[in-house]
Design brief:
The N and C termini lie far apart (47 Å). The protein contains three helices and no strands. The relative contact order is 0.19. Helices cover 50% and strands 0% of the residues. By secondary structure, the protein is an all-alpha fold.
Length: 70
């Protein structure tokens, strides 16, 4: 099992909280695609997304939050 430290995640995402949110959102996105269920030892999607983030393969951009009523 690979362990990701908060410093590793923060180095690629600005801070550790944003990194975890980005990785979780990417894992949910990847979960929508069909996968080969015959593979027994497939990595979990959260581990895969954290690997992509810390390797620099995952890029993202922040969108300004819309206010309601405007």
């Amino acid at each position: 099992m690979q362990i990701f430290t908060p410093l590793e995640v923060a180095a690629h995402a600005g801070n550790k909280y944003l990194g975890v949110l980005v990785a979780a959102k990417f894992a949910r996105f990847v979960n929508e695609f069909p996968r080969d269920r015959s593979v027994d030892h497939e990595k979990k999607l959260t581990t895969l997304s954290l690997e992509e983030l810390t390797d620099g393969a995952l890029t993202y951009r922040l969108l300004p939050q819309r206010r309601e009523g405007t």
